[in-house]
Each structure stands twice: as C-alpha cells, then as structure tokens.
Amino acid sequence: MRRNIDKVFFWTVGVLVLAGLFILISASMGLLTREGPTFYKTIFQQIISGIVVGLILLYFTSKINYKAWKKFALPFFIFSFLLTIIVFVPHIGFGSGGASRWIKLGPLFFQPSEILKFGFMVYLSSWIVSRKAEIKSFKFGFLPFVAIIAFVSLLLILEPDIGTLGVLAISSMFLFFLGGGRFAQLAILMLLGIGLIILLVKIEPYRMNRITTFFHPSQDLQGISYQLRQSLIALGSGGIFGRGFGMSLQKFNYLPEPIGDSIFAVFGEEFGFIGSIFLIGLFLFFLYRGFSIALRAPDDFGRMLGAGIVILIIVESFVNIGAMTGVLPLTGIPLLFVSRGGSAMAITLAEIGVLLNISKYRKL
To answer: Which candidate among 5, 152, 273, 363 keeps its CA 20 to 30 Å from the CA of 39?
Structure first.
C-alpha cells in the first residue's frame, strides 16, 4: 500500500541541510577577510550546485519506484565506474594535491566518486538480495563479495582516494553482515584490509604520517600533527557553550581546510560541547529514522538499499567527526550536509530521495 513520505525523516534532513549551510557560511568567513569574491563564490556554488541541484535530484528520485533501481543496478554501477575513470583523461580530469578526483567540463565541475558510491551501494544491495541463499557460503558469497570490493578498490587507489575507499569498504562490510554474511568472514576481510594498508604505506610512505599522527598526536606539532593539533585547539576553545556563531578564531589562518574536512572543529569552537552533541544527535536521529524506513520496507531489496544508503551517509559523517576529534586517523573525508562540496551534497540528497520513496511503501 502506498503512503505519504516519512515527513519526520524529510524534515530531519531539512534541518541538517539548513544547519550545514549556516555552519559553512560561518566557516567561510576566513575567506571573506582574505579574498572576498572567493567567499561569495563558495557559498553560491554550494547553494546552486549542491542544494538546488540536490533538491531537484531528490524530487525525481523520490518519484521513482525504488524497485526500478534493482533492474538497473548493474548498468548504473558500470556507468558510475566508467564516469570515475574519466578523471584520468587529460584536459577533462582535474587533479589537485597529487590526486585525480574531479571532472571539469567548462563550468561543470564535480567529483564522480560521489556517484560511484551511490552506484556501488545500489548494485551491492541488489547483489546481496540475489545471493540471499548463498551469502553465508565462502565460495559463492564471501569470495564474490571480496572481488566486487577489490574491483572498485583498484580504481580508488589509482586516483588515489583512500578515504572514499575506506568509507565504501566499511559501509559494504556492514551491509554484507546485515544481508546474512558471517562475522568470521568479515574478520578475514578486516585482516585483508590491514594488509592492504601496509602495502599502500610501502608504496607511498607519506601515508604513514597519518598513522603516526593518530598514535602520537603530540609528535611534530608544526608538521604532520598540525591539522589534528589545531582541530583539538578549536574544539577545546569552544568549551561547553562555544564562542558564538561566526566567532571562531581557528578558521583564520590556523586550521587547514576550515570549510572542508575540518569544518566540525570550527563548529565545535563556535557552538561548544553542547552544540557538538546536538549535531551528533541529529545524525544519530537520522540513523534511527532512516533505519526505521529500511526495516519497514516491503521486500528484501528495499531493506538492503535503504540500510545501505543510511550506512553510507552515517559512516562517512562519523569518519569525519572521528578524524577531527582524534578518535580516527585523518582521512580528508568531508562532513556530509556541512562541508563544502556540491557533488557530495547533490548526490546525498538524491540518495535521500530514494529513501523517501521507500518510505512511501513502508509497512505499519
């Protein structure tokens, strides 16, 4: 039976988007003092390419029956994979900081790995449902699952985009477990992941810096530990109630990427412990409400797809928060709904539209 969308979930997302925009405006004030036009350009791009485009995508994906995604899961995944490969094409792919992660076509500028994450979750959900009877099998369940992850991992390692790879791997393992995978199999995959990390460090020794910073945050405070140190200073300076909106000092010439992956530290400085707990609580309520939609979906695919989208969004968001508080190694992963990034915002809202469509068919 078709129902109305889950309005509580919809307005929860609305609060996250609106709060994220105000947090970004405040965090961008450092740009205003140094280069005014960049500030206005940043906010304009976030509103147009992120929120406006995202709401349009949300509208359309909320109108598409979620079961249609199962029919086109493989073509959509292949499309997103091929689109991501384009980042390596000269004059189209755009690189920065030694990584090729963006596509630039005239005024169009976006990160295709955001679409890849979406396509991968749609395909993995469809695959798990199709292998429901064999998912616990090592030969027909676990090994193909590892092969699917390895297929995507190779592309993300070549970019390189290890942060996105980590988010996808963690999200996939959660979804595989929910789909019936054995914990022992996931333990094997975690060991393989540790082996991959060791290999990546040997290939590019600079990656060891983030691991060193995680275990020894007081080492080389002006070098490899600088970002974490400045983030902790910002969070500590916020105290219980914060300095107030727009009053962060760390965003001015101290904290690297204050509108990117460090934005939670700026928020914590301005709104303090209470504000940080409120934002984390908002994400946790998003998790609760999103999982409620997934669990009440009328079929296995709806449950897997809904859970996969929620897990993907929550894992990425909490990896960012964990990195900024020193609980996890630094990754460069943005805080969804908050950090600058039109591609991330637009695709996330498209995913929300899929969840809203699933909610129309939820069981009471």
So the answer is: 273
